[in-house]
Known about the structure:
By secondary structure, chain A is an alpha/beta fold.
Amino acid sequence: MNLExxxxxxxxxxxxxxxxxxxxxxxxxxxxxGATEALRSLNLRVPRNSIFGFLGPNGxxxxxxxxxxxxxxxxxxxxxxxxxxxxxxxxxxxRRRVGYLAQVPSYYTHxxxxxxxxxxxxxxxxxxxRAIEERVEETLRMVELEDKADRPIKGFSGGERQRLGIAQxxxxxxxxxxxxxxxxxxxxxxxxxxxxxxEGLREHSTVFYSTHILDDVQRVSDTVAILNRGELLAQASxxxxxxxxxxxxxxxxxxxxxxxxxxxxxxxxxxxxxSVVYGDSRTTLQVAVSDDERAEEELLRLAVAEGGAVVTEFxxxxxxxxxVFVKMVEGSNNGE
Amino acid sequence: xxxxxxxxxxxxGWLSGFRNMLSKENGRWWNTRRWLVQSAxxxxxxxxxxxxxxxxxxxxxxxxxxxxxxxxxxxxxxxxAMTPFGVMVLTxxxxxxxxxxxxxxxxxxxxxxxxxxxxxxxxxxxGWILMVLVLLQGLGFEAVLMAxxxxxxxxxxxxxxxxxxxxxxxxxxxxSLMLGAFFKGRGPVLGIPIGIMVLQDLVSGLGxxxxxxxxxxxxxxxxxxxxxxxxxxxxxxxxxxxxxxAWSVLFTVAAVWRFKREEF
Lengths: 336, 264
């Protein structure tokens, strides 16, 4: 696959003017736990009113970053601001403007959903009581938990707990929502609901969420950052990431001898890489191209021109975020 | 749309979120009926045990007047010996449990100070402990005395004795909260106070030989002083009262100091 060099080209840290005033900005933010460096000199910039996907494999440092931003842990080095407030010094002021959903949300199980939301709301509002109750009711409706509002949380399903999590995170209509793996451990319906709620929130809030479900990211995010082993590999809009990946790949499934087709295609200067996947009776050539127009015109003809090759399937596909992500993370793991 | 405008909270100091935390902690006692269960348990344990000898007391049968010395001694001694264990059990998971379950992380992602988190537990638990384990038991004991026809303890004497018992429990409560802030598991939070409780007699016995003032710094002196106060006798010394107050303040400061450094 032609993803060589992608890491270099996408260490694009998008220019500030393009993004506007950032909601989150970190400078050299680092965190070590003993000898383990969980986060290394993170420079992050999250634009206002974006849905910002924070991607990385397990253990990449996503949750560590989120906890640093919320003042739940202290940085070893570096600094950060949220809404211009220092994340360490002005943590309470920062938290007043942020809603947070933890990766594994925990609530007081003796409370009902309504009591939980009421408890959370009172950190942000001193009254009047009737207005708080109205806000609670409105939020319960938003996440469709009205009928379960007065049941103890301990009986809630995973999806219901996650919806309650989103509700409590945005009970005060925060300027920024931080969601740590909001769709993890949910069935497809639960995931769909969570993504729908997230999309609905973008109008008023910035959403910063960590995930490793790349389909979701491509569906709802506009900007992403990719983290691996505590290091930021890239930060850019999804369009920029995909464009930097080199564009298009063609899949040709060949019955019979494929060597001639392989040789012929590989020689073309607009072909940036060919890989072979062997099947039982067929072989698939994955051809990454730098000139999509020429590929469309010539690729199939080149393959069938070689004697003995019968092309049974010919598919054109754009690179997906997953391809970019996997390549970058693998490249980083291999020290590229 | 809310018909009235919501008033945002403000303030970034240690009081941030304190009122809401107080209300939440209070709910753990009131809404879950914990107060009722604990009241019943301790009335049965303390006054139940004290009532038995009173029923068969020769003085009672003989109609002797005055404060019944032996039942008062039994009541004060049992309260001094048992209620600290009650405090340990009731509060052992207050901070550790929240650290383990993740609720502390959740709460602290809101605009609440860490001081408010710890101090709300201290204030509310202490209030309920005073009511359920101390005051209610004292009133129960008065009721038992009157029920068997004995003279009740004068109110001021009783309150004086209960106040000292209350101070005694403050020591164990603050110790428990401090250990909860320092440790990640329930074992040390429960084990260390039990160890202190068991070993303090030995330590004060040995200490008294070389450091005669040492026993006065330990909580074991307080039930004895509480007995003096209940019987209307002059206190032999006020040093344990000052020492235990100082320990309690020290434990509280240490709990807050450590919890502010906790990472979630």
